[in-house]
Amino acid sequence: MKKILFLVCLLPFSYLIYKTFLNQLGANPISEIIHFTGLWALNFFLITLAMTPLRTMFNIVQPLKFRRMLGLFASFYLTLHFLAYSGLDLHFNWSEISHDLLKHPFVYVGFSALLLTLPLVVTSTNYAQRRLKKNWKRLHKLAYLIPLLGVVHFWWLVKRDLTQPILYAIVLSGLLGIRLVKHFQQTKIKP
């Protein structure tokens, strides 16, 4: 099942490669690549966050086995998003990138999300989980902050139609809300 999911997670990337080779990315292909990879990063972060509520609400344990892979794919698409922006759009011109970081808050927020994924990726192994013990769980709570930063990044980036960022914000609020309700229920149960 994991191998099938791995291939499914590569479908957006494969689709992007396909559209690129067929020259079907529209008038501004670089902008399309940046937008596409950013949306898929956010999609994968939200899908990853949905695994625990699926277990909680429907008593389905199977999705939890895929959380790590989904989180790594979220980081993969976020890295592609950053590389498309910094490499394809700005040609790795670090003075221009730093200028964007200072001038545009949405770039700063997006870059912060990228930096926060790094410790999660590095510590995503079973070995790291054993070594870090309780600290591993604390560190991986960043997985709640990263999609929040992603939604803020998207919201601040969009100039006209806020429909998509609002939908992402609603989905994220629902996923985090389910966790908060569960947390408060567990807190009340403990003496």
Outline the secondary-structure elements.
Blueprint: H1 2-9, H2 11-21, H3 29-58, H4 67-89, H5 94-103, H6 105-122, H7 126-132, H8 134-139, H9 142-157, H10 163-189
- Helix tally equals 10
Rg calc: 18 Å
Rounded mean pLDDT is 93
Helix content: over 70%
> Helix/strand-derived class?
mainly alpha
Order of H and E elements: HHHHHHHHHH
Based on Cα principal axes, name the global outline.
Answer: globular
Strand content: under 5%
**How far apart are the first and last residues' alpha carbons, in Å?**
41 Å
Tally the beta strands.
0
> Which stretches are low in confidence, meaning pLDDT under 50 for 5 or more residues running?
none
Count of structural domains: 1
Summarize the main sheet. none
Briefly, what is this?
The protein has helices at residues 2-9, 11-21, 29-58, 67-89, 94-103, 105-122, 126-132, 134-139, 142-157, 163-189. It is mainly α. Helix 3 crosses helix 9 (142-157).
